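Supplementary Methods, section 5.1.

A reviewer requested that the exact input to the structure prediction be made available. We therefore reproduce it here, unchanged from the version used in the analyses.
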Amino acid sequence: MQSKDQLGTTHSFKSVPQRIVSLVPSQTELFVDLGLAGKIVGLTKFCVHPEHLRKSKTVIGGTKNVKIDKIAKLAPDVIIANKEENTQAIVESLARIAPVWVSDIYTVDDSLEFITAMGALFEKQQKADELVKTITQQRAAFADYIKGKQRLKVAYLIWKGPFMVAGEATFIGDLLRENGYENLLQDPKGRYPEVDEALLAQADLILLSSEPYPFKEKDRAQLSDQLGKPVKLVDGEYFSWYGSRLKDAYTYFRQMR
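The structure derived from this sequence is encoded token-by-token as follows.
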């Protein structure tokens, strides 16, 4: 059987892969929701959903510093990586061990394509189709809900010291558009550029993500006082985790709005 990843690379398999190493938390969560938990043999230290999973699996490092030797000992049939989360050097090194299927996700549509591809690769088409249908229905309902809402110019902060924001050409940027927001960084230099307070002051609303930097209430209050702008803490998993997390994201967005 063959499967083309989102970089256009075609991978060949003698049979349905039975031993999976997942290098990205949101993808690990998807595999569990597709009924593949028993086939996951390795995951990252950031794969926190479901919470119990890491206790029964081998932790192979972080997304940017995987342990190549540990992965080799697991003898995986396939390694699922992501272009943004995992470096090209990691992918090339791991390709000597097993096929490395690389996702490349900038939009919700890319995510739905990925879910469908994983359903086909692991012969979980029915569950994948049901998940895509659920997300698509919730997405459409939210689009109707958001019509007529005030279109605010927002800055979505992912880091502090220095401040860094999510630009337009990111998965976060796509979900900001789906929320009816206008990204302050329409044409940034880099996908997650550094910004200063003077630029942030041009936003109507500032969103502080819970990850990768864990912004807290004290950060929200301090920045709001400094800029005299509304600042809101948001759950970063709903804005940056693609895959099955999207089935709950639109409910969260509705509550947030």
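The mean pLDDT is 96. These observations are discussed further in the main text.
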